[in-house]
């Protein structure tokens, strides 16, 4: 026989409602409490898609953990705002310039321990050079993107960007907010002065680049090149190669002076409570099979020397010591120390 | 005392005097100028929407004018994307919760401020409206730091609280505007006729302040649904709102999907307004 429920008093109703409310809010946390969670950052777009669909779940299965990927910018201010002893991320994935800024503030560990990340032994020297905080798991080559249907001929040098015939169809970036633009500024110093740190030569060269169409994001530059609004521009190779097979009249130029490196860097936060898992994740991302899958999806050059890409990708990406030797790495520590001064100056140049 | 008849008699005379002062062609030019200015304002307001629609329907993966054709490929991509769909529903969920909380809190606060004889009412009103004066990105960052200090992570209720903070001023302001002209004798009459305070509120006060509350609720929904700066810091991984998802997307893929998402947002805003019109009859509140 069923026991009859008593009348529902106001107190009982309020208690039940409050319990239900608290339970609903707390349920996800309680359910997740047993799973170790590794909190990382990561890109959106194709990178984000494959990370969510394949690479992330495979890591979770193997290491019996939960991977929480934050793909909502900005990463560095969020990390800054969180406690150092309990940082919001365990592993930060971002470009080298931002990693250097984080390292200078003590928000990320400057180096990865090779004993804890065995795959570090197989990476190209650039990936762990003195220009890198943490480890670069991939790189893109920053060079020139061109339209092939405008009769520009064979472009071989960075200096051709200054040719007057590209007035009105030349493309660059808002230097204060775009790392390709910042790397390009350093290249200007190398091309027309004594080296990357010759800012005066770089500023003079930038003055001479005008008129130039400048954008914030590389995605916008890709579209301007595809639409023909821009004929010759600074861009990374993956921004051109990702349209491979779509019959687009665009091509990537690897200038004879060398290509700039746009590294995808992983670092571990000092206050992470998941150090073992964080190191395992870095090691996992350097595995040849993971590197191959990601490289062939987003057209990034893998950092692991042992990766064998399919012929189509191997022909275009930086997959041999000879090709990798063309990479020019930027001294981001030096750049970041002068960023405010550089920003003010380039803003004046392009505002005028 | 002036009568209605004398009023109507004096009108043609005034018009006559006006026509003497401004000759026909000048009056025509004035009318054309007035029309031109209004058309210019309408074009200025509607052109961005038109461009977004063209971008969304153009089959090329970049903005091209004139468009080369009409295609629904970007809408297909938008509706097929799990990330976009999740973001759309999550944004709607947050906007609905925000609207409810901001409306209840804002309307109650406005009533208390208008009727409560509270000390420092002006200061309280200024404090409640202050989120409108702060850059929203700072509000987002400040809330983010608070949640970090409280060690609560980035829960959905935290995002709703952030949105409520920035939408509350709209409800307070619009409700206060209605309460300003509210005739309290109507409530007194109801009480004198034996109605309880609760009944008086639901049958007299609420119907009369409804235009202000409703206008504030609509603002709250739209501001929350489109909210970007506050959400930027408060969204948690895997639970991003539509504006944040769009921002992350356009950094890597600036194609027509952005246009399709914008069209869907615009249509949703229309649906909300039309839905409210059908259910509660916005037309009766046009005086607002």
UniProtKB/TrEMBL annotation, chain A:
Keywords: Periplasm, Signal. Gene3D superfamilies: Periplasmic binding protein-like II. It holds the Pfam family SBP_bac_8. GO terms for biological process: thiamine transport. Transmembrane segments: none annotated. One of its GO terms (cellular component) is outer membrane-bounded periplasmic space. One of its GO terms (molecular function) is thiamine pyrophosphate binding. This is Putative spermidine/putrescine transport system substrate-binding protein. It comes from Bradyrhizobium huanghuaihaiense.
UniProtKB/TrEMBL annotation, chain B:
GO terms for biological process: transmembrane transport. Residues 88-276 form the ABC transmembrane type-1 domain. PROSITE patterns: ABC_TM1 (PS50928). It is a multi-pass membrane protein. Keywords: Cell inner membrane, Cell membrane, Membrane, Transmembrane, Transmembrane helix, Transport. CDD domains: TM_PBP2. It is found in: Cell inner membrane; Cell membrane. Coiled coil: none annotated. Its main location: membrane. GO terms for cellular component: plasma membrane. The keyword Membrane applies. Pfam families: BPD_transp_1. This is Putative spermidine/putrescine transport system permease protein. It comes from Bradyrhizobium huanghuaihaiense.
């Amino acid at each position: 026989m069923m026991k009859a429920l008593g009348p529902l008093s106001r107190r009982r109703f309020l208690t039940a409602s409050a319990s239900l409310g608290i339970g609903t809010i707390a349920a996800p946390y309680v359910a997740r409490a047993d799973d170790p969670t590794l909190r990382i950052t990561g890109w959106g777009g194709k990178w984000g898609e494959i990370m969510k669909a394949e690479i992330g779940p495979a890591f979770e299965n193997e290491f019996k953990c939960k991977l929480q990927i934050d793909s909502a910018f900005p990463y560095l201010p969020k990390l800054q705002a969180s406690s150092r002893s309990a940082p919001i991320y365990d592993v930060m994935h971002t470009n080298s310039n931002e990693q250097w800024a984080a390292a200078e503030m003590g928000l990320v560990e400057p180096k990865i321990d090779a004993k804890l990340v065995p795959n570090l032994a197989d990476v190209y020297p650039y990936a762990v050079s003195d220009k890198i905080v943490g480890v670069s798991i991939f790189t893109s080559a920053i060079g020139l993107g061109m339209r092939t249907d405008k009769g520009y001929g064979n472009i071989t040098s960075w200096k051709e960007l200054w040719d007057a015939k590209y007035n009105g169809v030349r493309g660059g970036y808002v230097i204060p907010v775009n790392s390709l633009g910042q790397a390009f500024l350093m290249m200007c110093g190398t091309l027309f002065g004594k080296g990357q740190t010759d800012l005066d030569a770089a500023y003079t060269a930038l003055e001479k680049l005008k008129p130039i169409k400048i954008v914030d994001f590389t995605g916008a530059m890709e579209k301007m090149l595809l639409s023909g609004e821009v004929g010759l521009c600074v861009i990374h190779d993956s921004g051109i190669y990702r349209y491979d097979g779509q019959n687009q009249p665009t091509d990537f130029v690897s200038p004879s002076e060398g290509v700039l490196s746009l590294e995808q860097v992983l670092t571990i936060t000092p206050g992470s409570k998941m150090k073992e898992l964080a190191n395992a994740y870095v090691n996992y991302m350097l595995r040849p099979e993971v590197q191959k899958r990601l490289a062939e999806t987003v057209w990034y050059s893998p950092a692991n020397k042992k990766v064998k890409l399919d012929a189509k990708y191997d022909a275009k990406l930086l997959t041999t010591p000879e090709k990798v030797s063309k990479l020019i790495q930027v001294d981001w520590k030096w750049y970041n120390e002068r960023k405010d001064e550089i920003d003010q100056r380039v803003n004046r140049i392009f505002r005028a | 005392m002036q009568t209605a008849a004398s009023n109507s008699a004096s009108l043609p005379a005034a018009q006559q005097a006006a026509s003497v002062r401004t000759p026909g062609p000048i009056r025509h030019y004035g009318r054309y100028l007035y029309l031109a200015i209004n058309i210019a304002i309408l074009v200025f307001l509607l052109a961005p929407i038109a461009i977004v629609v063209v971008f969304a329907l153009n089959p090329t993966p970049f903005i091209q004018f004139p468009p080369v054709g009409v295609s629904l490929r970007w809408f297909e991509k938008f509706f097929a994307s799990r990330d976009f769909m999740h973001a759309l529903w999550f944004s709607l969920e947050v906007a609905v919760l925000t609207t409810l909380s901001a409306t209840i809190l804002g309307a109650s606060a406005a009533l208390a401020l208008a009727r409560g004889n509270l000390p420092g009412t002006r200061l309280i009103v200024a404090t409640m409206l202050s989120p409108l004066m702060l850059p929203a990105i700072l509000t987002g960052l400040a809330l983010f730091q608070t949640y970090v200090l409280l060690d609560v992570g980035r829960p959905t209720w935290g995002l709703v609280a952030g949105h409520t903070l920035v939408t509350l001023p709209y409800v307070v302001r619009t409700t206060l505007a209605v309460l300003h002209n509210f005739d309290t004798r109507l409530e007194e009459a109801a009480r004198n006729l034996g109605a309880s305070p609760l009944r008086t509120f639901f049958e007299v006060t609420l119907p009369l302040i409804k235009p202000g509350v409703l206008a504030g609720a609509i603002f709250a929904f739209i501001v929350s649904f489109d909210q970007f700066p506050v959400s930027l810091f408060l969204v948690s991984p895997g639970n991003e709102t539509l504006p944040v998802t769009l921002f992350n997307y356009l950094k890597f893929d600036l194609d027509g999907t952005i246009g399709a998402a914008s069209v869907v947002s615009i249509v949703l805003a229309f649906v909300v307004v039309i839905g409210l019109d059908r259910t509660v009859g916005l037309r009766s509140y046009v005086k607002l």
